[in-house]
C-alpha cells in the first residue's frame, strides 16, 4: 500500500520532466498566446500538484500511523469549524489568484483588432477548404497519407495522418484572421502549436486569429466528431516569411492560370484516361472501389452503370453537383476542370465500359466557370 | 412522524439566509444544522437557495461586466 | 441473487421467475438493478476493450472508422445510463428503506415498473447495432446536426430508448423522495439521516429537474428528423449551438447525479473502517445541497470553443471555478475523518481510499479544464477523456464496488472472500491507472478525442493504455466469482458484519429478512 | 392510512415538477433566441427589417466584409458582388449577391446570415435582405439578389472589421419531405 501511494506523486513529477519521444505535455507553441496558455497550464498544474502532495501526504500519514494494527485508538472529534473554514478559504484565494492571469489571456484571445489577411476556412466532411478573401485563391486541403499506410500495407511515414496535399500558407509576423464555418456538420479547426481551436458550425461564422513569428510547418487535426473520417482530416499550416509568401501567392495564381489554359488545350483519350485513373484513385476509390463495382446496397457501382454508359449530360451533372440525399458529394469545387473531365472519361471507358467518347476539359470549364 | 420539537417557531429569515450562504461556502456547524432542521419546514430553504443561486449568477455577471469595463 | 430468506410469518417471496417479474420488494428490485447494472458494465466494458484494441497500434487493424464511432457512442451511453446510474438506484433501493427504518419503498409497484423498463430500453438501444446504417455513431453527447440530419436511420430507436431510460429514472427518483420524506421511522429525523440517504435525496431532486430536459432535447431531435421542424437546423432558422446549450444544461447536473451518491457511499464506509464519526457531517450535507443548486449555472464550460461571446466565457469560467470549492473541500472532510482514527483496510475501505485519491486527481484535472484560455488546448482531446474517466471509473465505479463489498454480507448473509476481494482491488487499481494516466499525456500532446487512428508520436502511451484496459477489464471476473461464491457458500456473517458499523441497516439480521421493519424501529 | 395521503401529495408535487422541467426544456428555445438578440451570441442576426438610421458618424470607417458559403446540399454558384467595402457607421450601403442554379432542376434556397465578431451582430442593420424570403431559381437561371445594410453608429469603438456571411441552404419542398422521411445517412 505504501509503495503505491509514495510512487504516485513521483510518477507525476517524472512525467512532466521528460521531453523524450514520449510527448507528455502541451507544446509551448510559436505564438505569444500559445506561450501564455502554456504558462497558465503549468501554473495551475503545479498548484494542483502542491495541494495534492499536502492532502495525500496527510492521508498517507494517517494511513500509516493511525492503524488499528498499530494500536491507534480512535479519537472522538468530528467537527472543527475553524479548520473547515481555513481549508475552504485557502483554495478560494488560490483560485482567485489563478483567475486574474486567465482573464487577461482570454481577453487577449478575443481581441479583434485589424488583421492584414483574412482567410475563410470551411469544414467539409473530411477535408478543409481555404479561401483567401480579397485574393482569387480557393483550394481544398485533404489527407495525403496513402491508403496502404493506413491499412498497414506500407510503412508509415514520419507525418502519418498529419500530412495534406495543399497546406494553408500564411505570412510570418502578420496578424491572420480565420473565419470559420462548415459545409455540413460541426467540425473544429485546431493547431496545437498556434493554440488556435474554434468550432466550425454550419450556417454560422466564427472567428479566430493568430500572429506567428517563426516560419515553419505546424500540424493539427479536426477536434470535433464529424462522422466516419473525423480522424482523417488534418490541418497543415506553413508559415513563410513575407517575401516567400508573396512568391507563393504569385506562384499559385500562375498555376491557376496554367490550369485554365491547359483546359483549353485539346486532349487525347489516352492522356485523359491516364490522368483520370490518378484522380479516380484519389477521390472516388474510397466509395466506388478500385474495380468500379462500389459496395452493393451502400455505394452504387460504375461498371456498366446506365449513367456511365448513357449520354454524358447526366454523368457530368452527378459528378459536378453530387446527388441530394446520398453520400455523393459535389466535386465541382474540389477538382479542376482537367481532373473532372479526365475522371469522367475514365469512368466511361474503364472496367469494360467501352463508350469511346471523351469529355473535354473545355466542356467542363465552361460549365464550371 | 414529525419531531416533537415541531412547534418551536422557525429560525428568523436572517439566520436561514446565513445557513444557505454557509451551504454555498460548504461549511456548517452541527448546532446550526440542528436548529435549521428543528423547524421542519423545508421549502423556505429551497426558495432561499434558488434566490441565492440567482443572486450568485447576478454577482458573477457584475464581476464580468466590471472586468470587461476596463 | 436467491437470498436465503429467514421464515417470515406472512407471504415470503414467490418462487421461480414470477418472483423477479412481479416483485414489489425493495430488496429484490435492488438486486435486479445491481445485476442488470453489472451486465451493462460488462457489455460497455467489451466495447471499451474493442476501442482500446483498435487504438493499440497506429493504423486500422480491427474495425472500420464508422463502426469505431458506433462503439465509442454505445460505450458512453451504456456506461452512463446502463451501468453507473442503475447501480446507484440498486444500492438506493436496497439500503434506503433499511437506513431510514421503512418497511419498503413508498410506491412498490412503480418501483417494479421503473426497473423493468430498463432491460427493454437497452435491448432496443443495443439492437440498433444490427440495423442497416448501423448504431448511433455521433458520440454519447449526440451533437446536432451529426445526430439529426446526418444520423443513421437507427437514431429514432436511440431517441425512444433515451425516453424510456428518462422515465425510469424520474419514477425511481420520485419513489426515493417519497420514501425518505414520508416513511422515516419515528426518531429518525432529517438531522439523523445517514449521508448516503442525504446524497440520494439531493440526487433524486436533480434527476427530477434534469431528466425531463434530456427528454425534451431528444424530442426536439425527433421532431427535426421526422416532422420537418428545424430546432437545430440552420436552414429553417434553428441553431446547432442551441442543442449544445440545452444538452449541457442537462449534462452538468447529470455528472453530479453520477458522483453525489458515490460521495454518500464513501462517507458511510470511511467512518466504519476508521472507527470514527464522519468529520463535519453538517458541512457535508450543506455542501452537497449547494453543489446541486450551483450545478445548474455552469453548463457552458463544456462549450468554451464553440464561439461564445467573451462575457459568456468569463461568466462560465468564474462560476465553474467558484463551485469547485464546495466540491473540493469534501475530500478534506474524508481525510479529516481518517485522521487519528483507528483504521483497518478491508476491501470496501481500500476501494474508498482509492476513490478519495483518484477522484481528487480527476477533480484537479477538472480544475485545470475550468481555466477557459487553457481549455482551448484541452477541449476535445484525450486530456478531457482522462479527466472524466478518472472521476467516473475510480470515482463512481469504485464507490459502487466499495458499496457492494460493504453491504454484500448484509444482503446475502455470508462474508465474501477477503483475499480475493483484495486481489480484485489491486488489479483494478493498477489497471485503472495504467489505462487512464497516460491519456493525460497523449491528450496534452495533441491527440483529439473519438479518432480511430492517430499520428506516430502518440503510439507508445496508447499501447500502454490498451494493456491497462485489458487488465482492468478482465479483473471484473474476479469480482463476479467472488460475489457468486459469497452468495452460495461461504462463512456466515454476523448481524453487525463490521466492527465499526453504524446505522439502522446493521440492526436487522444478516441476511436481511425479506420484510424488514414491518413495525418501525425506535430510533433513540 | 396517513402515508398514502402524504405519498399522494409528494408524488403529485414531483410529477408536476417533472412536467414543468419538460416544458422548461422547450422554453429554452425562445429564451435562447431572446438571449442571442441581446448579446449577438453566435452572430445570429434578426431577420426583421430595420429602418434606415438618420445620423451618419464620419469620424471612423468600418471594414465590412461579405462572404458566401454553400451548404452541402447547395450546387449553386453564390458569390457577393463586392467582397469588401469601407463604411461609415450609419451610412446605407447598397450591394447584391449573385446566385446561379447550376443544376437542371427547379430549386428553392434560403440564405441564413451570420456576423463575426458576434459582438457586432446587434449593430448590423439589414434594411433590405434577400434572406428575408425564399429564393426560387429554375435550372441554369441566374439572378442578382439585392442587399441593403447599414452599421449602427452605436457600434463599440474597438470593432474595426465586421464580416457578414450568408450560408445558402436548399429548402426545395419535396426534397425536405423525402430527406426527413428516411433520415439521410452519409457513410
TrEMBL record, chain A:
Residues 18-113 form the Cytochrome oxidase subunit II transmembrane region profile domain. It is a multi-pass membrane protein. Residues 271-351 form the Cytochrome c domain. It comes from the Bacteria. Belongs to the cytochrome c oxidase subunit 2 family. GO terms for cellular component: plasma membrane. Subunits I and II form the functional core of the enzyme complex. Electrons originating in cytochrome c are transferred via heme a and Cu(A) to the binuclear center formed by heme a3 and Cu(B). One of its GO terms (molecular function) is copper ion binding. Its main location: membrane. This is Cytochrome c oxidase subunit 2. It catalyses: 4 Fe(II)-[cytochrome c] + O2 + 8 H(+)(in) = 4 Fe(III)-[cytochrome c] + 2 H2O + 4 H(+)(out). The chain crosses the membrane at residues 44-64, 85-107. Its cofactor is Cu cation. Pfam families: COX2, COX2_TM, Cytochrome_CBB3. It comes from Neptuniibacter caesariensis. Binds a copper A center. InterPro entries: CcO_II, CcO_II-like_C, Copper_CuA, Cupredoxin, Cyt_c-like_dom, Cyt_c-like_dom_sf, Cyt_c_oxidase_su2, Cyt_c_oxidase_su2_TM_dom. Residues 1-20 form the signal peptide.
TrEMBL record, chain C:
Keywords: Cell membrane, Copper, Electron transport, Heme, Iron, Membrane, Metal-binding, Respiratory chain, Translocase, Transmembrane, Transmembrane helix, Transport. Pathway: Energy metabolism; oxidative phosphorylation. It holds the Pfam family COX1. One of its GO terms (biological process) is electron transport coupled proton transport. It comes from the Bacteria. Residues 20-524 form the Cytochrome oxidase subunit I profile domain. It is found in: Cell membrane; Membrane. Signal peptide: none annotated. InterPro entries: Cyt_c_oxase-like_su1_dom, Cyt_c_oxase-like_su1_sf, Cyt_C_Oxase_1, Cyt_c_Oxase_su1_BS, Cyt_c_oxase_su1_dom, Cyt_c_oxidase_su1_bac. The chain crosses the membrane at residues 32-53, 73-94, 115-135, 155-183, 195-222, 242-266, 278-302, 314-336, 348-372, 384-408, 423-443, 463-484. It is a multi-pass membrane protein. Its main location: membrane. GO terms for cellular component: plasma membrane; respiratory chain complex IV. GO terms for molecular function: cytochrome-c oxidase activity; heme binding; metal ion binding. Coiled coil: none annotated. Its EC number is 7.1.1.9. It catalyses: 4 Fe(II)-[cytochrome c] + O2 + 8 H(+)(in) = 4 Fe(III)-[cytochrome c] + 2 H2O + 4 H(+)(out). Cytochrome c oxidase is the component of the respiratory chain that catalyzes the reduction of oxygen to water. Subunits 1-3 form the functional core of the enzyme complex. CO I is the catalytic subunit of the enzyme. Electrons originating in cytochrome c are transferred via the copper A center of subunit 2 and heme A of subunit 1 to the bimetallic center formed by heme A3 and copper B. Belongs to the heme-copper respiratory oxidase family. This is Cytochrome c oxidase subunit 1. It comes from Neptuniibacter caesariensis.
TrEMBL record, chain D:
It is found in: Cell inner membrane. SUPFAM superfamilies: Ctag/Cox11. This is Cytochrome c oxidase assembly protein CtaG. Signal peptide: none annotated. GO terms for cellular component: plasma membrane. PANTHER family: CYTOCHROME C OXIDASE ASSEMBLY PROTEIN COX11, MITOCHONDRIAL-RELATED, CYTOCHROME C OXIDASE ASSEMBLY PROTEIN COX11-RELATED. Keywords: Copper, Membrane, Signal-anchor, Transmembrane, Transmembrane helix. It comes from Neptuniibacter caesariensis. Its main location: membrane.
Amino acid at each position: 500500500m505504501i509503495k503505491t501511494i509514495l510512487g504516485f506523486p513521483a510518477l507525476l513529477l517524472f512525467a512532466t520532466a521528460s521531453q523524450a519521444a514520449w510527448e507528455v505535455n502541451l507544446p509551448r507553441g510559436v505564438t505569444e498566446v500559445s506561450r501564455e496558455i502554456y504558462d497558465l497550464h503549468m501554473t495551475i498544474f503545479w498548484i494542483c500538484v502542491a495541494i495534492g502532495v499536502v492532502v495525500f501526504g496527510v492521508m498517507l500519514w494517517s494511513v500509516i500511523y493511525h492503524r488499528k494494527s498499530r494500536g491507534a485508538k480512535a479519537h472522538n472529534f468530528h467537527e472543527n469549524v475553524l479548520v473547515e473554514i481555513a481549508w475552504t478559504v485557502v483554495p478560494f484565494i488560490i483560485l482567485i489568484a489563478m483567475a486574474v492571469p486567465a482573464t487577461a489571456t482570454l481577453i487577449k484571445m478575443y481581441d479583434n483588432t485589424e488583421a492584414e489577411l483574412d482567410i475563410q476556412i470551411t469544414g467539409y466532411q473530411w477535408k478543409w477548404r481555404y479561401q483567401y478573401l480579397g485574393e482569387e485563391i480557393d483550394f481544398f486541403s485533404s489527407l495525403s497519407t496513402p491508403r496502404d499506410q493506413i491499412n498497414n500495407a506500407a510503412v508509415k511515414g514520419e507525418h502519418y495522418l498529419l500530412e495534406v496535399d495543399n497546406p494553408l500558407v500564411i505570412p510570418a509576423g502578420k496578424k491572420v484572421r480565420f473565419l470559420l464555418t462548415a459545409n455540413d456538420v460541426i467540425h473544429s479547426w485546431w493547431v496545437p502549436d498556434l493554440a488556435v481551436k474554434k468550432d466550425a458550425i454550419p450556417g454560422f461564422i466564427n472567428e479566430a486569429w493568430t500572429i506567428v513569428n517563426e516560419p515553419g510547418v505546424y500540424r493539427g487535426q479536426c477536434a470535433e466528431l464529424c462522422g466516419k473520417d473525423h480522424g482523417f482530416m488534418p490541418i497543415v499550416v506553413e508559415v513563410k516569411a513575407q517575401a516567400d509568401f508573396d512568391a507563393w501567392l504569385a506562384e499559385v495564381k500562375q498555376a491557376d492560370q496554367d490550369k485554365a489554359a491547359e483546359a483549353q488545350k485539346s486532349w487525347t483519350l489516352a492522356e485523359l484516361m491516364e490522368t483520370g485513373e490518378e484522380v479516380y484513385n484519389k477521390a472516388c476509390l474510397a466509395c466506388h472501389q478500385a474495380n468500379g463495382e462500389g459496395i452493393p446496397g451502400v455505394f452504387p457501382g460504375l461498371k456498366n452503370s446506365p449513367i456511365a454508359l448513357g449520354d454524358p449530360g447526366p454523368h457530368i451533372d452527378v459528378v459536378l453537383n453530387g446527388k441530394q440525399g446520398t453520400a455523393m458529394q459535389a466535386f465541382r469545387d474540389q477538382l479542376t476542370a482537367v481532373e473532372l473531365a479526365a475522371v469522367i472519361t475514365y469512368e466511361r471507358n474503364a472496367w469494360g465500359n467501352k463508350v469511346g467518347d471523351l469529355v473535354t476539359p473545355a466542356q467542363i470549364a465552361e460549365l464550371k466557370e | 412522524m414529525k419531531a416533537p420539537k415541531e412547534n418551536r417557531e422557525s429560525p428568523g429569515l436572517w439566520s436561514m439566509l446565513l445557513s444557505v450562504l454557509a451551504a454555498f461556502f460548504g461549511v456548517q456547524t452541527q448546532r446550526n444544522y440542528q436548529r435549521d432542521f428543528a423547524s421542519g419546514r423545508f421549502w423556505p430553504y429551497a426558495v432561499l437557495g434558488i434566490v441565492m443561486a440567482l443572486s450568485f449568477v447576478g454577482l458573477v455577471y457584475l464581476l464580468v461586466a466590471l472586468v470587461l469595463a476596463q | 441473487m436467491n437470498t436465503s430468506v429467514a421464515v417470515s410469518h406472512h407471504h415470503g417471496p414467490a418462487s421461480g421467475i414470477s418472483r423477479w417479474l412481479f416483485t414489489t420488494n425493495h430488496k429484490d428490485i435492488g438486486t435486479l438493478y445491481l445485476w442488470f447494472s453489472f451486465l451493462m458494465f460488462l457489455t460497455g466494458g467489451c466495447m471499451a476493450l474493442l476501442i482500446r484494441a483498435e487504438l493499440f497500434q497506429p493504423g486500422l487493424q480491427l474495425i472500420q472508422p464508422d463502426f469505431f464511432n458506433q462503439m465509442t457512442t454505445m460505450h458512453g451511453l451504456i456506461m452512463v445510463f446502463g451501468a453507473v446510474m442503475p447501480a446507484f438506484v440498486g444500492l438506493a433501493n436496497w439500503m434506503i428503506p433499511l437506513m431510514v427504518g421503512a418497511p419498503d419503498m413508498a410506491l412498490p409497484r412503480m418501483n417494479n415498473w421503473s426497473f423493468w423498463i430498463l432491460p427493454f430500453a437497452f435491448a432496443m438501444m443495443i439492437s440498433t447495432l444490427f440495423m442497416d446504417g448501423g448504431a448511433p455513431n455521433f458520440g454519447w453527447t449526440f451533437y446536432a446536426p451529426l445526430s439529426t440530419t446526418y444520423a443513421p436511420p437507427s437514431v429514432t430507436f436511440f431517441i425512444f430508448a433515451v425516453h424510456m431510460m428518462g422515465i425510469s429514472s424520474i419514477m425511481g427518483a420520485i419513489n426515493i423522495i417519497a420514501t425518505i420524506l414520508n416513511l422515516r421511522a419515528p426518531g429518525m429525523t432529517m438531522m439523523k439521516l445517514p449521508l448516503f440517504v442525504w446524497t440520494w435525496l439531493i440526487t433524486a431532486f436533480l434527476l427530477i429537474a434534469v431528466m425531463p430536459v434530456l427528454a425534451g432535447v431528444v424530442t426536439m431531435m425527433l421532431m427535426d428528423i421526422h416532422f420537418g421542424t428545424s430546432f437545430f437546423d440552420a436552414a429553417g432558422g434553428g441553431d446547432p449551438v442551441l442543442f449544445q446549450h440545452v444538452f449541457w444544461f442537462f449534462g452538468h447536473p447529470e455528472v453530479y447525479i453520477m458522483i453525489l451518491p458515490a460521495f454518500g457511499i464513501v462517507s458511510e464506509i470511511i467512518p466504519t473502517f476508521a472507527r470514527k464519526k464522519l468529520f463535519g457531517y453538517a458541512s457535508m450535507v450543506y455542501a452537497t445541497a449547494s453543489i446541486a443548486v450551483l450545478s445548474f449555472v455552469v453548463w457552458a464550460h463544456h462549450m468554451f470553443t464553440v464561439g461564445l461571446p467573451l462575457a459568456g466565457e468569463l461568466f462560465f469560467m468564474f462560476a465553474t471555478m467558484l463551485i469547485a470549492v464546495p466540491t473540493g473541500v469534501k475530500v478534506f472532510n474524508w481525510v479529516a475523518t481518517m485522521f487519528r482514527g483507528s483504521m483497518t483496510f478491508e476491501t470496501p475501505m481500500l476501494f474508498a481510499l482509492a476513490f478519495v485519491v483518484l477522484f481528487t486527481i480527476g477533480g484537479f484535472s477538472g480544475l485545470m479544464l475550468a481555466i477557459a484560455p487553457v481549455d482551448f488546448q484541452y477541449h476535445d482531446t484525450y486530456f478531457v477523456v482522462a479527466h472524466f474517466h478518472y472521476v467516473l471509473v475510480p470515482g463512481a465505479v469504485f464507490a459502487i464496488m466499495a458499496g457492494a463489498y460493504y453491504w454484500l454480507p448484509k444482503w446475502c448473509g455470508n462474508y465474501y472472500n477477503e483475499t480475493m476481494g483484495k486481489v480484485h482491488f489491486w488489479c483494478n487499481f493498477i489497471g485503472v491507472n495504467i489505462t487512464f494516466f497516460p491519456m493525460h499525456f497523449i491528450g496534452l500532446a495533441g491527440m483529439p478525442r473519438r479518432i480511430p487512428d492517430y499520428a506516430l508520436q502518440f503510439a507508445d502511451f496508447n499501447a500502454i493504455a490498451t494493456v491497462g484496459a485489458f487488465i482492468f477489464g478482465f479483473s471484473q471476473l474476479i469480482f463476479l466469482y467472488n460475489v457468486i461464491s459469497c452468495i452460495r457458500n461461504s462463512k456466515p456473517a454476523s448481524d453487525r458484519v463490521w466492527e465499526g458499523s453504524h446505522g439502522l441497516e446493521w440492526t436487522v439480521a444478516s441476511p436481511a429478512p425479506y420484510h424488514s421493519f414491518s413495525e418501525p424501529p425506535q430510533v433513540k | 392510512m396517513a402515508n398514502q395521503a402524504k405519498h399522494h401529495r409528494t408524488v403529485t408535487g414531483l410529477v408536476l415538477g417533472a412536467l414543468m422541467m419538460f416544458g422548461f426544456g422547450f422554453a429554452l428555445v425562445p429564451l435562447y433566441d431572446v438571449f442571442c438578440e441581446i448579446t449577438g451570441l453566435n452572430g445570429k442576426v434578426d431577420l426583421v427589417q430595420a429602418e434606415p438610421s438618420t445620423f451618419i458618424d464620419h469620424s471612423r470607417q468600418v471594414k465590412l466584409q461579405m462572404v458566401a458559403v454553400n451548404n452541402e446540399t447547395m450546387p449553386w454558384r453564390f458569390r457577393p458582388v463586392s467582397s469588401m467595402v469601407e463604411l461609415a457607421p450609419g451610412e446605407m450601403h447598397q450591394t447584391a449577391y449573385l446566385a446561379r442554379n447550376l443544376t437542371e432542376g427547379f430549386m428553392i434556397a434560403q440564405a441564413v446570415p451570420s456576423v463575426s465578431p458576434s459582438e457586432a451582430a446587434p449593430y448590423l442593420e439589414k434594411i433590405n435582405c434577400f434572406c428575408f424570403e425564399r429564393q426560387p431559381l429554375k435550372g441554369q437561371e441566374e439572378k442578382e439578389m439585392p442587399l441593403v445594410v447599414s452599421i449602427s453608429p452605436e457600434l463599440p469603438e474597438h470593432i474595426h472589421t465586421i464580416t457578414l456571411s450568408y450560408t445558402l441552404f436548399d429548402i426545395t419542398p419535396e426534397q425536405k419531405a423525402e430527406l426527413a422521411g428516411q433520415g439521410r445517412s452519409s457513410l
